[in-house]
Amino acid sequence: MIVALDIGTTDLKAALFATDGTLLQTGQRPLSLQSDSAHPLRHEADALDWVRGIRDLCTEFGLSPEKRPEAIVVSGNGPTLVPIGSDDRPLHPALLWMDRRCIEEAATISEMNGFYVDPTFYLPKSLWFHRHRPEIYEKTKFFMSCPEYINYLLTGNAVTILPAVGFEPYIWTEELVAQLGMEWSKFPDFVRPGDPIGPTTATAADLLGVPAGVPVYAGGPDFIVSIVGTGTVAPGRACDRAGTSEGINLCAERAISDPRLLCVHHVIEGYRNVSGIVSTSGKALQWFKEITGRSSSPFEQVFQDIEEIPAGSNKLVFLPYLTGERAPIWDPNARGAFVGLAMHHGRREMTRAVVESVGFAIRDILCVMEESGLQVDDVRITGGQARSPRWIQIKADITGRRFLLPAMKDAELAGDLCIALFGLGRYDSLAEAADAIIRIESVFEPNGGNRQIYDDLFSVYRESYAGLKGVFKRIGGMD
């Protein structure tokens, strides 16, 4: 048996697999999200929530010395960072991947690096503690992401998971850390996905409910693990991580140089990972549900409500920049906006516009990829939105791309399984493991009848941000 654990933004998920890939058992626990309306750039989480949830799920799975898994792999949302003290407890709530308070720190690091580093990345968050919470920085034994913290509690070994060679400047380097006046000892050494971290300890058995002596293999950030878990392991395949946020990752044969996208080595050696991140996608629809009094309504009920609204939401466009935006505009000051509101628009049109905005944001990223000469053959979708066929079809229509739906909807858990099998030596590479394990369940072809309206509104979508960029900057600069 293999235990796969994935720490999401709002949910912790776990799966118990047989070593042939058969899903034996799943579990899920809600996680707390701490946001502050007085400080809208700040988004935090209680790291001990992860510990409690994992203990509950391992107990639910009935793990014991008699029911001992062969391996454990942990993945988690990123770039999320938590400072750990000498007693191995968090010194401060974790700064979540969507926390954008570190704008000045990111600017400092970007200038040193010679390329853009987003405020959400790991090193700006570490520098923020150094500058603004020196009492916490001084007590910090290690800075860790969420899967790395759980790995540490499982094994007692502190590591930083490097998705691929070349990722170092996006995480941290010894040279940068020294230039920033911080101590390199607080930043654990790198390992790669599939590398052994160590066996679980007796302490972990008490703390997390897992038997001692189980090998733990490095998983990694959720977006990297999802690439493996959707089979995005050959050129032309793209992965759409569709949850609270949206991550688009394309497997490419060559590198590109375009500041609007990230281009690093792929987790599969020899390829490049060209990616862009939409900061709020599913979160945007959840926000709109809440402010319109439908917070408890299932997403499919929301989609039934807008079923009769035509493509294009009766010529209404929404910009989903509710927490700033990353790719391709990289603007922390960006804000959400409805464009084209008129008296004939109501709640249903506005709802559909929010849904469609995610498709436009994805298309924006895919267009930049194509402008750089890359080919996108298909998009493999995973995450919460993968459970809504209507939403997948809208994305296919807006982007003009074929969307593939894997049988295992939680690609992070499927990717953890592939990584474990590779770590155990059952496959010679992660690509081989993914191609053997990942199965496509459904294919969504774009509806050509909606092409013209979506082409027209996509131009409006891009032009709207260009026209409002200065306004957003003014609003962002107001005290």
Report on the structure:
With 479 residues, the protein is of the alpha+beta class. The chain has 2 domains: 2-224, ATPase, nucleotide binding domain (Nucleotidyltransferase, domain 5, 2-Layer Sandwich), CATH 3.30.420; 231-406 and 447-476, ATPase, nucleotide binding domain (Nucleotidyltransferase, domain 5, 2-Layer Sandwich), CATH 3.30.420.40. Helix content is 37%, strand content 22%. The chain has 16 helices and 22 strands. The protein has a 7-stranded mixed beta sheet with strand order 16-17-15-14-20-21-22, with helices on both faces. The protein has a 6-stranded mixed beta sheet with strand order 3-2-1-6-13-12, sandwiched between helices. Strands 4-5-8 form a 3-stranded antiparallel beta sheet, with no helix packed on it. The mean pLDDT is 95.
CATH topology of the largest domain: Nucleotidyltransferase, domain 5
What is the percent of helical residues?
25-40%
| Category from helices, strands and their pairing | alpha+beta
How many β-strand runs? 22
Average pLDDT figure: 95
CATH architecture of the largest domain: 2-Layer Sandwich
* Fraction of residues in β-strands: 15-25%
Reported for the largest beta sheet, the result is:
7 strands, mixed
CATH homologous superfamily label of the largest domain: ATPase, nucleotide binding domain
Rg result = 22 Å
Sequence stretches where pLDDT stays below 50 over 5 or more residues: none
Q: Please give the domain count.
A: 2
